[in-house]
Amino acid sequence: MKIRFLLNTLFLVSFSIIAQKNNGIVIYKVEQGNKSVLDNGRVNYLFENIDKNLDRLEYHLIFSGQESTFELDKSLISDFDNTLTPAIIAVGKGKYYYKKNTLLLNQKQTLGDLFLIEYDLNDLKWELTTDRKKIGDFECVKAIGTATVFSIEQTNNKKVVAWFAPSINLPFGPKKYVGLPGLIVQLFEDDLKFQLYSIKFGNQKIKVPQKGIKITEKKLNEYALNKAKEYFKFQN
Predict the structure, then answer these.
(1) Pfam families per the record (predicted)?
(2) Is residue 151 part of a domain?
């Protein structure tokens, strides 16, 4: 009887530990990945403003089970201080929601409306490499991602580089970069670097974004193109 009680207790403790490891919050910091050379003085001024404020940005990835959300720390958003606005626009805004192998959404304000954008999970392909490096306390593996990007003019492929930790078996990462066999510790996207700053395990509740005009990423860009055509037609 005592042995059975001990076994049951050990099982419950083990289950609790595993459950805690599947719940928590990751904080990412942002910095300039590669310094760009800009000749235009006005553009240089804007670039310097963005670069100066990047390290003030903090993004929170909350995960629970097979779900996660990713968004800017809400305390940084202020109606009275817009000094961070250029940096926020450069890095990206909105709230991302991901359910493993099932759904990827981004709720964001754009073009004068609130949209709930659904991404095609097949638009992101990962190639795992044999490259390894230690980042902080984590042994990481390099992965190269190819993402389909829809713009007003055309559809392009964009390369990103992610270093993920297989020891943290969570398929989450910044923005829409998900689906790897380990948590992304470091991500290079364009000239930006997302760096894991801290991770804390503990119970979390995921709030699935519901509000907004439901639309696919491709349809949103078609909508933006039509809006642009209407604007320039009106101007002329």
Answers:
(1) Porph_ging (PF09697)
(2) yes
pTM given for the model: 0.82
* In a domain? residue 220: yes
- The two tokens of residue 31 are 């910095």
Give me 52's structure tokens: 């100066």
Output the DSSP codes for 97-125: EEETTTEEEEEEEETTEEEEEEPPGGGEE
CA quadruple 46, 47, 48, 54: dihedral sign:
positive
- Residue of higher predicted confidence among 127 and 85: 127
Mean pLDDT of 121-145: 97
Residue 98 lies in a domain: yes
Distance between CA 96 and CA 77 in Å, rounded?
17
Residue numbers of the domain that contains 159: 23-230
